[in-house]
Amino acid sequence: MRRFEGKTALVTGAGRGIGEGVARRLASEGAAVCVVDIDGARAEEVAASLGEGSFALAADLSVRAEAETVVPAAWERFGALDVLVNNAGITRDAMLHKMSDEQWDAVIALNLTAVFVLTRAAATRMRERGSGRIVNISSTSANGNAGQANYAAAKAGVIGITKTAAKELAGKGVTVNAVAPGFIDTEMTRSMPPEVYEAARSRVPVGRAGTPDDIAAMIAYLASDEASYITGELVYVRGGWI
Q: How many H-runs (helices) and E-runs (strands) does the chain carry?
């Protein structure tokens, strides 16, 4: 099934992990993808493997001036933009009483402010065009997680942006949804101490960690024409982990 034949997409943090999985899924279904990552070399590598029409953009989205260039660059290259996936994110964990201003600011800048900047830029253009799909990556940590006040606040904020944008754009042919992954097997989670990784994995009722493909499948659905009546929703993809 090639649901995105002739369509274009921009995926942030697409050099690896969930973002790479999403970029590959959309491209496999026909989309030309703008692969955005702070690691320009990795973004180029991924984009080159996706086929004709896809291209890479190196950008540090935590820097507002750089974040503001991304959607206009993709729109100019493609001539339009059908799908925006806000995936880029970092963690800078610390217990609340030990968390520095720098740790707070870094996570909020990339995980929340950049989502706002890119969503605003895409929404402005998509509403004028009368169509578009925006999918934002939140997290189960939005419900609160020890040592992640910054990350939880940012991911909860993403839900707020999503629901607000969905209401504002619902009559303009643009849907906005969020996906909240659970415990996903990525480079980031594999960097955990083995005992911590296994403890987290063992709490997942389906008996395994999720994969980037699991998240990509849901995002591809929400970005497709099949999901035209779904907007303002938060969809958990977590293997039953509550």
A: 9, 7
**CA dist., res. 112 & res. 108, Å (int):** 5
CB atoms within 10 A of CB 96: 11
**Residues with catalytic function:** 151
According to DSSP H, which parts of the chain are helical? Answer: 17-28, 40-50, 64-78, 101-108, 114-129, 149-169, 187-190, 194-202, 212-223
pLDDT in tens, 14-23: 999 999 999 9
Cβ count within 10 A of residue 196: 11
Sketch out the chain's domains with CATH numbers: 8-236 (3.40.50.720)
Cα angle value 140/144/147 (rounded, 5°)? 110
Q: From 89, 90, 10, 83, select the one nearest 50 (Cα to Cα).
A: 10
- Integer CA distances (angstroms), 98 to 104, 112, 129, 133, 149, in order: 11, 21, 47, 39, 11
CB atoms within 10 A of CB 168: 13
80 alpha carbon, distance to own chain's centre: 19
- Whether this prediction's pTM lies above 0.90 is answered by yes
Please give the share of the chain, as a percent, with pLDDT higher than 90: 84
Cα(210)–Cα(75) distance, integer angstroms: 32
Cβ burial, residue 159 (10 Å; 0-12/13-18/19+) = middle
